[in-house]
Every structure is written in structure tokens, then in C-alpha cells.
Design a protein that fits this description.
With 308 residues, the protein is mainly α. It contains 13 helices and no strands. It has one domain.
């Protein structure tokens, strides 16, 4: 009792309580303090930091999905090719499938390269841009895995460019000022102005959406020539004209990406598109079809039959 009175009674009460429940200055000096330190909830991030983290997470997910689409789509398609499993040269249909796969891989890889640059300049602030990115990745996967269907692939390429144009429009809505040179007066910064400046060969920043629309029209024109004009003209279809058509698709993909990088003038862009479309029209009208070409070169480079 004397001990208790000594600790809690009289003028020594404050000192005794302080000695009994003293908390060290540093958290490392006792186990209990370490537990308290470890369980401390960090302060919430500022709103701007949370948004930036969300934008980064969205773009990181798309990067991972691109890698999955390329690895799964291309590898699965190659593994399922009969000539690979049977260890023989490809037949005509298998050569056509291989060319379609090359065009699909070109589109996927070039799109990945352009996507990384775009989201670095204009992050995925808009949820619908993020949604279109996810949809595009699965369309690329479909394009890679359906290369054996010899009449689907060209329409899928054109559909991709339609989604590109929508993605660009959403980008312009989100980052309108980013499509203009620095120090542009705010009264001149409009969504409509971005497209008008692109048609007028304005600042490089403004040309991106018009580039996408122009090359999208090129791919839809290829669809029109191969799906509508050819059957009406000679009774054949895309299945008989895949060899050169895939070459023209790859050239269009490459020139689109070069246009995005170097920013062609509207005249140069239109000239490139016109030349490629005229080449496709000449090929469809006067050059031999794939079966005719195969009669000439097939005995030297391929198999006479396709595996069942």
C-alpha cells in the first residue's frame, strides 16, 4: 500500500504516470511502437495523383493485353497450321493464310508502337477511350486467330480504322488544347478547329485525327473494290486476290504510321492513297488471280494439296 501511495499519491503522481507509460521518441526503440508504426494508415493521395495513377494503370493493362494478343494469337495460329504440323510446304490456301497473318501482325505491332506514343502524350483520362482500347486488343486477337478465313480479314482492318477515328475524336474532346501549338489563344482552341487545321495542313499537332480518317477511307475503299467491284466485274472474289491485296494492306499500314510520325501534307497523303488504290484496281482488273499465279509458281515453292 505504501508503494501504491508512493506512485499515485501526492506530488509524485505525474512523475510516476510518466515513468510507467512513457513512450519513447523513436518508433524503433520498442516492439509496441513498431506495431503502431506499421499499422499507421498513409494519408490519402491528392485528387491529381489518384487520377494520374488511374491513367497509368489503364495504359499498363492495355500494354499487357497487347502482349497477350500477339503471343497467343500469332503462336496459336502458327501452331494450328496443317503444313507446320505435317512438316511439308504450304499449299495455295495456306500461303494465303500466312500472308493474312503477316498483315495482321504488322497491324498489331505498328498499332502498339503508335499507342505507346499517343498515351504518353495524352493519357487515358476518358473511360470510353480505355474501353475502345480493350475492344481493339480483342479485335487484333480475332484478326490473328481467324487468318484461315480468307474473306474476313480485310473488313476487320477497315473496322479497326473506324475505331481509331472514334478514339481520336474522344482524344480531341479530352485534350483539345494539346492539338494546338503552345500559346494559342483560348478562343481559337475548338474541337472543330482541330479537324479544319488538319485539312489545311496546319500545325503538326492538329493533323493526327485527319491522318486517321484519310487512311481509314483508304481501307474502306479497299473493301469496296474487293467485296463489291470484283464480283460484279469478273465474278471472282477476295479469296482469289489475296496475294497482292495483303501487300497493299501492309503498304497502307506502313504509310499510315509514317504519316503519323512525319506528318505528310494533305496533297502527299492523298497522292499516296490514290496511287495505292489505282494499283489495287489495276491488279484486280488485269493481273492474274491467285490460282493462276499458283499454276506458275506452285510446283516450285509449295505443295499440290492441303492437309485435311
Amino acid at each position: 500500500m505504501d508503494f501504491v501511495r508512493g506512485m499515485f499519491g501526492g506530488g509524485r503522481r505525474r512523475y510516476a504516470l510518466g515513468a510507467l507509460f512513457h513512450v519513447p521518441r523513436t518508433a524503433e526503440s520498442c516492439l509496441g511502437c513498431r506495431l503502431i508504426w506499421a499499422n499507421t494508415t498513409p494519408p490519402p493521395l491528392p485528387r491529381e495523383s489518384r487520377q494520374e495513377a488511374q491513367w497509368h494503370d489503364r495504359s499498363d493493362l492495355i500494354r499487357r493485353l497487347f502482349a497477350v494478343a500477339i503471343s497467343v494469337g500469332a503462336a496459336t495460329t502458327l501452331y494450328r497450321m496443317r503444313w507446320v504440323l505435317e512438316g511439308r510446304p504450304p499449299c495455295l490456301a495456306e500461303y494465303q493464310q500466312l500472308l493474312i497473318l503477316v498483315a495482321a501482325m504488322t497491324a498489331t505491332v505498328l498499332s502498339w508502337d503508335g499507342y505507346l506514343w499517343s498515351v504518353k502524350q495524352r493519357p487515358l483520362r476518358n473511360f470510353w477511350r480505355f474501353t475502345i482500347d480493350i475492344l481493339l486488343v480483342f479485335i487484333y486477337l480475332l484478326l490473328l486467330m481467324t487468318s484461315q478465313l480468307l474473306t474476313w480479314w480485310l473488313f476487320i482492318h477497315a473496322l479497326i480504322y473506324l475505331l481509331y477515328a472514334l478514339w481520336d475524336w474522344l482524344s480531341v474532346m479530352d485534350w483539345t488544347a494539346a492539338f494546338y501549338p503552345p500559346k494559342t489563344p483560348s478562343r481559337k482552341i475548338t474541337i472543330r478547329g482541330v479537324y479544319v487545321e488538319g485539312l489545311r495542313d496546319g500545325a503538326n499537332e492538329s493533323r493526327g485525327p485527319i491522318i486517321t480518317i484519310a487512311w481509314g477511307l483508304y481501307f474502306w475503299a479497299l473493301c469496296g473494290l474487293n467485296y463489291l467491284i470484283v464480283p460484279w466485274f469478273n465474278g471472282l472474289g477476295l479469296r482469289e486476290y489475296i496475294v497482292i491485296s495483303t501487300v497493299l494492306v501492309v503498304l497502307g499500314l506502313y504509310e499510315y504510321r509514317q504519316d503519323k510520325i512525319t506528318r505528310y501534307s494533305m496533297f502527299k497523303r492523298t497522292a499516296w492513297i490514290a496511287v495505292l488504290l489505282l494499283a489495287d484496281a489495276a491488279y484486280l482488273a488485269w493481273l492474274p488471280s491467285d490460282p493462276t499465279l499458283w499454276e506458275w509458281v506452285g510446283p516450285y515453292i509449295g505443295s499440290a494439296f492441303c492437309g485435311q
